[in-house]
């Protein structure tokens, strides 16, 4: 038996969106998507639609102290864990919320109309 103490999800382009979420067709190949046709796959392109992705998503941090009985939060729709760590009973969870301002089904960070 082992205990997972910390994990971090890769964000290769440091745009706030975990790289696995940039696999648009869920084929486990993040290299085959280039939404702005600039020659760089989305997972290494910090502006997938010509606007800095970090400006098109919301980031959140939760701190949960299990020593006093606090429980991990329920994430909202389109909210994903980008990093999680635990130290002495205190869990820190960093998340990203993929906003879809015009409700067209395409998150703002991929939507050229946003």
Task: Please outline what is shown here.
The protein is an all-beta fold. Helix content is 0%, strand content 26%.
Plain-language structure description:
By secondary structure, this protein is mostly beta strands. It has one domain (6-110). It is built from no helices and four strands. A four-stranded antiparallel beta sheet has the order 1-3-4-2, with no helix packed on it. A hairpin with a 2-residue loop joins β3 and β4. 21% of the residues are buried.
Which features characterize this protein?
114 residues, mainly beta, four-stranded antiparallel beta sheet, 26% strand
Main sheet properties: 4 strands, antiparallel
How much β-strand is present in the residues? 25-35%
- Strands in their spatial order, largest beta sheet: 1-3-4-2
What coarse outline follows from CA principal-axis ratios?
Answer: elongated
Radius of gyration, rounded?
16 Å
How many distinct beta strands?
4
- Total number of helical segments? 0
Structural class: mainly beta
Number of domains: 1
Q: Calculate the mean pLDDT score and round it.
A: 87
Low-confidence segments, given as residue ranges, are none
Q: State the end-to-end CA separation.
A: 47 Å
Order of helices and strands: EEEE
Which range best describes the helical content: under 10%, 10-25%, 25-40%, 40-55%, 55-70% or over 70%? Answer: under 10%
Task: Give me the secondary-structure topology.
Elements: E1 6-8, E2 57-65, E3 79-87, E4 90-98
Antiparallel strand pairs: 1-3, 2-4, 3-4
